[in-house]
Specification:
This protein is an all-beta fold. It has one helix spanning 206-211; strands at residues 23-29, 36-42, 51-58, 66-70, 75-80, 85-92, 94-102, 108-117, 122-127, 139-150, 156-165, 171-179, 188-189, 193-195, 200-203, 219-227, 232-241, 247-253, 255-256, 261-262, 267-274, 278-286, 292-299, 305-313, 318-321, 331-340, 346-355, 361-364. It has three domains: 23-127, Immunoglobulin-like (Sandwich); 131-259, TM1070-like (Hypothetical Protein Tm1070, Chain: A), CATH 2.60.290.11; 260-367, Sandwich (Jelly Rolls), CATH 2.60.120.380. Strands 10, 11, 12, 13, 14, 15, 16, 17, 18 and 19 form a ten-stranded antiparallel β-sheet that branches. Strands 20, 22, 25, 27 and 28 form a five-stranded antiparallel β-sheet that branches. Strands 5-4-7-8 form a four-stranded antiparallel β-sheet. The N and C termini lie far apart (58 Å).
Length: 367
């Protein structure tokens, strides 16, 4: 296989043995540097009268596994991951409203209305392309905290996210997962989601629903949201789900890129407490795709600076500094000033004060 109209470079070179009476479909998948041929075969005639055959191939390298289902109905092809395919399914000929769901969930990633299957037709449906299409989805938003995993004192944290389209036209968006303490220059992307004007969508346990994070994996970080709309509203709740069924947590709004802290702007976070009853953390998020240095100064309640420092944040990195006033404990009414001098930078800073017995958090926003 070579680029169209050329004789080089050869990106795939392979031998294929062809058997009589068998139909072959050869699919080039993945990115160019890891391009891989996948071969689908079919034999044994065709569908019975009045029916059609349809199968599904997943060819999108940055998309999670999906279910293909009848709209609001049964799953036809379940848990199909990248480079996997589902064998032919014989169905009555007709027109169907279908949908692609994040595998194992009811989250509709893409509606597929009006799919017509003709009598005697043989079809292969393909999922192709990339989710992280930064050219089409050019408006950035951020959800500062996203979690799914064990925490302090037996807590277990999850995050729910609401996204609402405040504009007058249809909006498309997708999540990017920004795990903590990682260079996120090439973040994992979710499927794309569609919101009609005024419509809202809640992703309960968003890291499981959008990225398939399962029990046994501790995932902490933030979410970027990419959209073709400048009119999205976002809100999140990160909470401890107790074994009794009760929960408690903190509500945190989403932020458009324009709401981040720009270079040479100093912001203050109050209400830091460190004693036997409470502990306090501070978190930082780099809101751009290049390195940013965030500086800080810590002060006690008497306005005495007790420490200063900085954090080097690679592209879209998020980090958390726990028990930030531990060296000064016991302390209350302490505060922190944060800023960056990196040109063209933008970042988020926020804090949490947590009960040492229950881990019940109070959110600290910059002022």
């Amino acid at each position: 296989m070579v680029p169209a109209g050329a004789t080089s470079p050869v990106v795939i070179e392979a031998d294929l043995t062809l058997a009589g009476g068998t139909d072959y479909t050869v699919i080039a998948t993945d990115f160019l540097n890891t391009i891989t041929p996948i071969i689908l075969t079919a034999s044994g005639g065709g569908p019975t009268p009045g029916n059609a055959w349809v199968r599904f191939f997943h060819g999108s390298p940055d998309a999670p596994a999906v279910d293909i289902a009848v709209a609001d109905g049964a799953v036809l092809f379940g848990n199909v991951a990248f480079q996997q395919f589902a064998e032919y399914l014989e169905v009555p000929a007709g027109t169907y409203d279908l949908e692609a769901r994040v595998a194992g969930t009811s989250t509709v990633a893409l509606p597929l209305p009006g799919v017509t299957l003709a009598d005697g037709g043989v079809y292969t449906a393909y999922a192709v392309g990339l989710l992280a299409d930064l050219g089409k989805l050019s408006n950035f938003y951020f959800v500062p905290t996203a979690a799914r995993g064990q925490g302090f004192a037996g807590s277990f944290w999850k995050t729910d996210v609401d996204v609402q389209n405040g504009g007058n036209t249809r909006a498309i968006f997708q999540y990017l997962w920004l795990p903590r303490d990682t260079d996120n220059a090439e973040p994992a992307g979710s499927l794309e989601f569609i919101l009609e004007p005024g419509e809202a969508l809640r992703h309960t346990d968003v890291l499981n629903a959008a990225f398939g994070v399962s029990d046994g994996t501790n995932a902490y970080g933030a979410l970027a949201v990419l959209s073709d709309s400048e009119s999205l509203y976002l809100y999140s709740r990160t909470y401890n789900q107790r074994s009794s069924g009760a929960s408690y947590g903190q509500g945190i709004p989403g932020y458009a890129m324009s709401s981040l802290i720009p270079a040479d702007t100093r912001k203050r976070l109050l209400f830091f407490t460190e004693n036997q009853a409470f502990r306090s953390n501070i978190a930082l998020l780099n809101g751009v795709g290049s390195p940013v240095t965030v500086k800080w100064q810590r002060f006690n309640a008497a306005d005495v600076m007790v420490d200063e420092g900085s954090a080097e944040l690679p592209a879209w990195r998020t980090t958390q500094i726990n028990k930030v006033f531990e060296a000064e404990a016991p302390v209350e009414a302490a505060y922190i000033d944060v800023w960056t001098e990196t040109p063209d930078a933008a970042f988020l800073a926020w804090g949490s004060m947590l009960d040492n017995t229950t881990s019940d958090p109070a959110t600290i926003f910059p002022q």
